[in-house]
Write a structure and sequence with these properties.
Elements lengths: L5 H17 L6 E3 L3 H14 L12 H11 L8 H10 L7 H10 L10 E3 L2 E2 L24
Antiparallel strand pairs: 1-2, 2-3
Amino acid sequence: MEKFDKHEIRLLMKRDVEYLLSLPDAPGLQWTGTRADLVDLVHESLLEADFFDATGRRLTFLELINRLKRKLHVQMAPNFYQLLSQRERCKSPQVRMINRYHSMIARGCIRPVQGFYGQNGQNDDGHNGRYGQNGQSGQMVMGVMGK
């Protein structure tokens, strides 16, 4: 498996969060991954770079989570920080979103986040549900890591 550094992976995760934020509002659009996946994706993205709103104001972790909750119709308890701390304490590296992204990117997945959301529970690639621990679903182009 090709080796990518955390900086590269987090930049791709940031690109995918920006992509999710840019999706048009739609009643059937929903997050099909776990709530912890969404929290982990945003957290890892923010470790590498900031997000800004249309006026140039820096968005906080809480603001990003709230925007994505509304856009992707995610029901999340107010203590979602607990999800993040549980994920960080987890012993299995496959649970961490950055490791799952690494695995998907190394196999040629261009936009890994496409396996984690869909219209009425149907992902872009036609799979119902979410990625497994090894990230089997998604748009694949072998040997290409696109922006």
